[in-house]
Amino acid sequence: MTEPTNAQLRPRRGRPGRPTSIARHGRLTRRHPFVALGKILAGIAVVASVSAFSLAGIAVGDVVTSTKPAVVLVNPTTHKEVTKQQGIAALQGSFNVLLAGSDSGDGNAAYGKRGENLNDVTMVMHVSADHQHITVVSFPRDMLVPIPSCPKEDGSGSYSAMSSQKINVSLSYGGLACTVLTVEKLTGLSIPYAAVIQFDGVVDMSNAVGGVPVCLSGPIKDPYTGLNLPAGTSTIQGQQALAFLRTRHGVGDGSDLGRISNQQVFLSSLVRTIKSADTLGNPLKVYSLAKAAASNMQLSTSLSNVQTLASMAVALKGADLSNIVFVQFPTNYVPGGGAVAPDPAGERALLTALQNDEAVQVTGNTGIGSVQDPTHATTDAGATPPATAGSTPTTAPSDGASAPAGSGGAVALPDQVHGQSASDYTCSKPFSG
């Protein structure tokens, strides 16, 4: 069976023969970043690491040639400074990376008949100026947002602005550059780096690390993705890992919101696996991670050189697991339909913290698709106490105004903002609808 798409909900502009999503300097293939954060962290962390091994010369050259044609963002003058990165010193100050992708399956028949070129997963990774805190925000695919006027991919003009559409149509109207413009308008953040990622990257990445352990609070079956896992902990890789990350009907309430928190179970475990000595101390795994990341991502021009990737690695290598925080952009359901809209209080608190380059602390639960793992402590051994779910920070005001500092000076987000840190052990929650 093939998971239904929401292509029928996509707005039509009455333009017969409108071109598919084509980058202005190279084809923007249809991608999906189900392990977007894991791959971007792996890619930037291991490109620098390979230089420590005898495989360095071969690996770096091979990884660079694996990257696909770069995508030019809409406003390169705004992001001019990021294209001039020289040397392998850490990037200076805070920075943001957007990861987007399509649910089309990149034309692979193994994934069934897919819909149009929709960015059904959109994430932004914010790295603080001191490089000690990383906040990864997942934007629900059905969230209604304004979409600005975006240049057509063939350079023949621009698409009209739209006042309220689901965020996952942005990739269809101007490609990756339009998704970046949309998220910049929504968040008020400058996003100089971006990437699009495909289904097969999940398979390659999970294989490269030798599998990722995930916990399930009960058995999960999903006939749409073919997922069938027992309760407890399973180490998954390859197509099974892809099915786990694609599942929507098997977790939570069957919605995309449940899928986001289920993905965060995998992402947090993937980050722990990548940062473990067993991975970083193994040159073959390091090389495989770099290769898997580069082979399955299409990058913006600002990301498409090994010096920039290595400089990001230097900036990120010291971040503690407890300071890598995954959050779901806060929303409320819109009456009478399957869409959601930003929750004003939660949105204001989250975006203010990001704009002010402040660390965040999740005070709400992990989301409807996951629960805390009762068999593990809430923090990784040796890690500092996490600013995440399960802790008891200073309570944030319910209206989201001037949220007080939580543990370690982090901003305590209102409890309608769900998520976890990479040091939190969580379990996927089976569908209960």
Automatic annotation (TrEMBL):
Ranges that cross the membrane: 34-60
Comp. bias intervals (Low complexity): 373-405
Ranges annotated as biased composition (Polar residues): 418-433
InterPro entries: LytR/CpsA/Psr_CW_biosynth, LytR_CpsA_psr
Domain Cell envelope-related transcriptional attenuator: 119-275
Chain positions covered by the region annotation Disordered: 1-27, 364-433
Keywords: Membrane, Transmembrane, Transmembrane helix
A Pfam family the protein falls into: LytR_cpsA_psr
Signal sequence coordinates: none
Family in the record: Belongs to the LytR/CpsA/Psr (LCP) family.
Record protein name field: LytR family transcriptional regulator
Organism this protein belongs to: Gryllotalpicola protaetiae
